[in-house]
Design goal:
263 residues; alpha/beta; TIM Barrel; eight-stranded parallel barrel; 12 helices; 48% helix; 16% strand; globular
């Protein structure tokens, strides 16, 4: 059965890096990110406009090249979580969660009994036709899946100890854009108010044995937070990388003909 390499690397004390799939409906981008060396892809069904079949293709492409597919759902629904896990997602990101009871319920959908409430509909195609028994599949799936919750508001920060105590939670992923808005400093990602709040959350994560993480909008921002202790670090998304590299290429090309134009 497939190994969740991102989970294994985190369990060994490492830091993992990923990037988002948010705009372009191409499974090939996951393969590109794998070739670049990213550990995981963050497939966004909250702000992205992908349907379930497109995401299933992205998940399949991710598995084919050894990068971990983790999907953010648009809302907390069992039908979304269960179908994405059945499609092969190795982790689910839960957005906008502030209530420990809701978090506990949503996390229970990610694992089979007795650890959770996930329904068993596994068929041979979902396990690459491996001849494993039902107990083996249940144990492997329960152990490998990653349960991720986003902290995006001051309310979530105020309830951090309660939320971090919920069984089955593996990773916290800060959403700095929404958090900056909630703090009254929209877009000020280097504001001391935001930095100190996130620093405190990192320490709380450590005390609860939960992996601290963040999704950022630039490589520089990702590096900043990796250096401060974040271990599940997302850098940009596919559209941002394409635009950034395209601008760089055009600038270099224009510089090549600038001397001729000056004559």
């Amino acid at each position: 059965m497939r190994v969740n390499h991102t989970r294994e690397k985190l369990a060994q004390g490492g830091t993992v890096f990923g990037s988002g799939l948010q705009v372009y409906r191409s499974p090939e981008i996951a393969r590109t990110f794998a070739a670049a060396g990213f550990d995981y892809v963050f497939i966004d069904m909250e702000h992205g406009h992908f349907d379930l079949e497109t995401v299933a293709d992205m998940i399949k492409a991710s598995h084919s090249c050894g990068i971990t597919p983790i999907v953010r759902v648009c809302e907390l629904l069992y039908s979304l979580v269960a179908r994405l896990l059945d499609a092969g997602a190795d982790g689910i990101i839960l957005p906008r969660v502030e209530d420990p009871r809701l978090l506990a319920e949503a996390l229970s959908w990610m694992r089979f009994p007795p650890m959770g409430k996930r329904g068993y509909g596994v068929n041979a195609t979902m396990v690459d036709y491996a001849p494993n028994s039902m107990p083996e599949i249940i144990e492997h799936s329960n152990r490998c899946v990653l349960g991720v919750v986003q902290f995006e508001t001051t309310t979530a920060l105020a309830r951090a100890d309660e939320l971090l105590s919920v069984p089955g939670l593996d990773i916290v992923m800060v959403g700095p854009a929404d958090l900056s808005i909630s703090l009254g400093i929209p877009g000020e990602f280097d504001n001391p108010k935001l930095v100190s709040a996130v620093d405190r959350l990192i320490e709380q994560c450590r005390s609860h044995n939960v992996i601290p993480g963040i999704q950022t909008r630039s490589v520089a921002m990702a590096r900043f937070w990796a250096e401060r202790g974040m271990r599940f670090v997302g850098a940009c998304a596919e559209h941002a990388f394409l635009l950034e590299k395209s601008k760089e290429a055009v600038k270099q090309l224009q510089a090549a003909v600038a001397p001729q134009m000056a004559r």
